[in-house]
Design brief:
By secondary structure, the chain is an all-alpha fold. It has six helices and no strands.
């Protein structure tokens, strides 16, 4: 028995393959592709589940898919196009399917980033950058560590800087691979 309804699989695969090719070539994911994906997802969900249930599944998947990758964007670890693409993938899959796909995407992206750091012998710089991100997240804008009720000393110049590593990854490719793995695991 197939766990992925018929129009969902081909639509999602077309969306992520086009996005991955575009991201490899232009290093961005175009908004027009995301808008087409969101529109097609709404139509597919409505056709499969009816207007109200389809819209609820569409909205839940869109919010879940985008929400999982949103912290990566806020920490400047990925672009907004990646978050929007994951939201478009989620609109086809519903909330639980979007969450599963996003976890697979994060796994694929993490393994790929680790492999690139090892390949370019940039493991130390990569670990330094992760520590800098964690320290910056744990500090408020004033620079004092959290846990002091916001009464910091105001050491604004105490933020960590990131070291240059191997560059950026076209995360649309990780989204494509992770989404395809997630879909194939549900077949």
């Amino acid at each position: 028995m197939n766990g992925v309804p018929f129009p969902v699989g081909p639509c999602v695969l077309a969306l992520v393959v086009i996005a991955a090719i575009y991201d490899l070539h232009a290093r961005r994911i175009p908004n027009w592709l995301v808008v087409i994906g969101l529109g097609a997802g709404l139509v597919v969900q409505g056709a499969l589940h009816g207007a109200i249930d389809g819209m609820l599944l569409w909205a839940g998947g869109t919010l879940t898919g985008g929400a999982v990758l949103l912290p990566g964007y806020l920490l400047r670890m990925m672009g907004a196009g990646d978050v929007k693409l994951m939201a478009a993938v989620g609109c086809f899959c519903g909330a639980s399917g979007a969450f599963e796909a996003a976890l697979m995407v994060c796994t694929v992206g993490g393994v790929w980033a680790l492999a690139e750091m090892l390949r370019h012998r940039q493991m130390r710089a990569g670990l330094h950058n992760m520590a800098a991100v964690l320290i910056d997240v744990s500090m408020p804008a004033g620079g004092a560590p959290r846990g002091d009720n916001g009464q910091g000393t105001g050491n604004a110049g105490n933020t960590r800087t990131r070291r240059p590593t191997t560059g950026t990854l076209p995360y649309g490719v990780a989204i494509a691979i992770g989404t395809m793995l997630s879909l194939f695991m549900n077949v």
